[in-house]
Amino acid sequence: MDDRLAKKLTILADAAKYDASCASSGGPRRKAPPGGLGSTTGAGICHAYTPDGRCVSLLKILLTNYCLFDCAYCVNRRSSNVRRATFSVEEVITLTVEFYKRNTIEGLFLSSGIIRSPDHTMEQMIRVAKGLRRQHGFRGYIHLKTIPEASPWLIEQAGLFADRLSINLELPTEASLERLAPEKDGAAIQAAMGQMRERIAQAKDERRRFAPAGQSTQVIVGADASTDVSLIRTSASLYHTHALKRIYYSAFSPIPDAAAILPAKPPPLQREHRLYQADWLLRYYEFSADDVAEAAEAGMLALDVDPKLAWALKHRGRFPVDVNRADREMLLRVPGLGVRAVDRIVAARRHTRLGLADLSRLTSGLKRARPFLVAADHAPTRLTDRLDLRARLAEPPRLGEAPRPIEPPRQLALFG
Amino acid sequence: MRRAVHLAPGADLAGFRAAARRLAADDIPPEAVTWTQGDAPALFADREDAAGAAPLPLPRPVAELIAGVVQHRDPERFALLYGLIWRVLRGERHLLEVASDPLVHRLARMRKAVARDLHKMHAFLRFRRAGAAGARERFVAWFEPDHHILAAAAPFFVERFPSFDWAILTPDGSAHWDGSRLDFGPPGRREDAPASDPFEAGWCAYYASTFNPARTNPAAMRAEMPKKYWRNLPEAAAIPLLVRGASARVAEMIEREAQAPLKRVPARALAAMSAQEPASLSDLNALIRRSEPLVPGATQAVPGEGPIGAPIAFVGEQPGDQEDRQGRPFVGPAGQLLSRALAEAGLDRAQAYLTNAVKHFKFEERGKRRIHQKPSAGEVAHYRWWLDRELGFVGPRLVVALGATAVLALTGRSVPITRARGPARFDGKPYQGFITVHPSYLLRLPEAAQTDAYGQFVDDLRRVRALAEEVRG
């Protein structure tokens, strides 16, 4: 690989890394045809992990980091002084194919700065995906970051070649978009998501191939004054209206050459973590956005306890729950019990009465679950009502991180 | 009576299965069996006669668990598995559902360890290029799995990389693919794999660049990518340096004050950015021509035809065989019938605009024939944006939908033609609408019915003409 290409790769991978999405999952199972290259497993594979703990599944790069837009939170905005580079369509195809052959990636995640026009940029991205599929018989995973400002016909084209399409919401409210991303338009983003949802659903009904892994989006956390509850409400509505597969929450990260409008500060990683947990409660634990709101204080999720525990602490009257009798829905509300542990409990109790030792083999979260459940040989007596229960169950602050009080985000004043 | 069973090294599933059948048939309890493994030939001739013993009636989940656990490296695995079989056959048929049982728990953990090892091998194995034989490239990988998983792991690589030759070398054995056969061979050595690869430096550069120092969390990385894998991962060499440099990089980002942009605002590019919409019908048609067909088949796009400003536009379903060959709409048999009917109704085809809801011929090849396929609702929807723009440029006062697909394209709804035939309003559209049958429908009717139907079609076109004059007035 020549130096010039390696240099571009360094710039354009660096420029793409703030997008949290990396999944290669959700697609159908495919294998390479004779002479072709690549397969998908359905579940996705992480081929490496970087020291930030995030998985490297796809070659995540920008086609170019030149951009005509000026979104304050973005390292590639036109007013930023970062180094710039542009790949040719062929270069992206070569990198994808060669990395793929070495078994370092599941496929390509392609995004781009806006050059010339949204349509022109989107067309270039589609050419990459088409070239991979047509010239190389590539059956690996392709995720295209759709440009919502591009013409609707380009979405119709992108879905032919991509497994997953996504449009980043970036900021949860129109007001924030207007302030921080002046070229973007919330209504256009929603319209494009709606169009994609319709096409993906239709194609699925008609058994045609059109973005079979569905669509996802990303919201930046901590760049504006939105509360956790308002974010979760937005998410619940997006899952509902646009049938999104995933919503990624990306803690606003300090970037090189940050805009003056946003103070650089460490990213609220714990907050991001709690939002993911709340998101999971929506998708897998039969929680509603209102339930999540009940777990929060002044619109914000607690940082010292997870949202499910926070909900349980506020609804102590619903506990303890008898693991040998309670229905699945209530077991899912028990802090510390995951979906799989609950399924195992439900299967095992058909054949035996479960005691604490049994439970310790069914879940690794027994310490947190104990005060909230009744087992054959265990009743928490006063434990559920103890005033210091929260303190006993709270996670110790992570090493090197000062404990942070629960308070609305600092930017509130800034945007007031 | 004690029994000794000797199995082949590694994941000897066939040997274990045969032995278990034999033991169960002879009613030997688990505590009376000694299991050994190795290259020495079996002391007892159990294996041969076991082939005759009846298969064990095990529930499928149990059989699957056994197939997984035999790959584990723990020498106790066979004794544990036979203990499970013994209990399942003696009344505990649903034993696996009792995940809290200590034996089930232990076996489930062993199987999970095997599954994880398999998954990590699929993830962390790295091929290096080892030249090419003719047009076929060759790649070789060295990998050290924890368990006996090579045979289970190899099919994944066959499905993924059928088009080049590859070999996977491990301390326990090797797998070789030549494009048609997967063979297993003796153990390999690290030195047998190439020492370098032309794209490895690029990959390592990518790995380093995609790391975000502001989120450094090496514990999370190690949980998923334990250190034992690092020595065979070329990118892992950079980890210590990346972690050490991270906090300084972040501190620098936070402390540096926002800088004024060095470049001027690209005013001209910004002004031009919004001018991406096709400015004319020919722009739009050029764009349709260079786009990928959204239906299968089609050799070329067939755009509409007729003067801009035509008072009447006719919208059909999709181009047919002849249209696809010539690249023009309504030139096949149905198009000729339409021309005749237009003339009889006193309409000049040259003054009208003719186009299709779907711009490509959707067909299926059967022998030498190309059989027309009706576009699905979803496919029609893919083309709607283009059709709307097209009619926007032409600006007709009256749009005639020929057949159900055209109605669907213009209204977004499925409407039975027989009921909706006649003048219509298409919601939100600036033109008057009219619905009639597609001329190809007339061609498909039995001959006896054709004359009447054709007469009605011409009548419809006469009403179209009258309506167009009305709208103009």
TrEMBL record, chain A:
Question: What positions does the domain Elp3/MiaA/NifB-like radical SAM core occupy?
Answer: 57-277
Q: Which cofactor does it need?
A: [4Fe-4S] cluster
Extract the SMART domains matched here. Elp3
What highest taxon heads this organism's lineage? Bacteria
Quick check: keyword Nuclease in the entry?
no
Q: Which UniProt keywords apply?
A: Iron, Iron-sulfur, Metal-binding, S-adenosyl-L-methionine
Q: What is this protein called?
A: Elp3/MiaA/NifB-like radical SAM core domain-containing protein
Organism listed in the record: Methylobacterium isbiliense
TrEMBL record, chain B:
User: What's in the keyword line of the UniProt record?
Assistant: 4Fe-4S, DNA damage, DNA repair, Hydrolase, Iron, Iron-sulfur, Metal-binding
Q: Name one Pfam family in it.
A: UDG
Record's keyword annotation contains DNA repair: yes
**From which source organism is this entry?**
Methylobacterium isbiliense
Which InterPro entries does the record cross-reference, listed alphabetically? Answer: DNA_repair_put (IPR023875), DUF4130 (IPR025404), UDG_Type-4/5 (IPR051536), Ura-DNA_glyco_family4 (IPR005273), Uracil-DNA_glycosylase-like (IPR005122), Uracil-DNA_glycosylase-like_sf (IPR036895)
PANTHER family associated with the record: TYPE-4 URACIL-DNA GLYCOSYLASE, TYPE-5 URACIL-DNA GLYCOSYLASE
Where the record annotates domain Uracil-DNA glycosylase-like, the positions are 303-462
Q: What is this protein called?
A: Type-4 uracil-DNA glycosylase
- What NCBIfam families does the annotation carry? SAM_7_link_chp, UDG_fam_dom
- UniProt cross-references to Gene3D superfamilies, sorted A to Z: Uracil-DNA glycosylase-like domain
> Which CDD domains is this protein grouped with?
UDG-F4_TTUDGA_SPO1dp_like (cd10030)
| Family indicated by similarity | Belongs to the uracil-DNA glycosylase (UDG) superfamily. Type 4 (UDGa) family.
